[in-house]
Design a protein that fits this description.
Number of helices: 7
Helix content: over 70%
Order of helices and strands: HHHHHHH
Shape: flat
Strand content: under 5%
Largest sheet: none
Length: 132
């Protein structure tokens, strides 16, 4: 299948996700299959499109976020244990990590020879920003 463009891509992702969720349920519809059926290559973009779409209900969004509850708990425990700064909201730490991971992935894909440098630098930037 040819890769769709912008609005067509968004619609293809939503159609594929809706179809797979209906067939398999939320937990049995991996983003790799959604992106394959939608004709897009980047799985994280599928997730981003789904997060901002109005197609999914709050219950569906909550179910999709469930695997990340443990991550949120780890962040809160690190704040409570004073490993992470306690003047930062846990949600900001989580969103910051997500943004830094996405930037690192983008740079690594566009310049694989610098992948280790990007990974190491990204981690150092994040760690310096959230620890005491």
């Amino acid at each position: 299948m040819a890769r769709p463009k912008s609005e067509d891509k968004r619609n293809a992702i939503l159609d594929a996700a809706t179809r797979l969720f209906a067939e398999r349920g939320l937990t049995a519809a991996p983003t790799s299959e959604i992106s394959k059926q939608a004709g897009v290559a980047e799985q994280r973009k599928v997730l981003a499109q789904l997060q901002v779409s109005e197609v999914l209900s709050k219950e569906s969004r909550d179910a999709g976020s469930a695997p990340f509850v443990e991550f949120q708990t780890m962040i809160r425990n690190a704040i409570d244990g004073r490993v992470f700064r306690n003047d930062l909201p846990a949600e900001l730490i989580s969103k910051s990590l997500t943004a830094l991971v996405e930037a690192t992935i983008d740079l690594t894909v566009s310049n694989p020879s610098k992948a280790k440098q990007y990974r190491d630098s990204g981690f150092q930037m994040f760690w310096a920003g959230i620890t005491k």
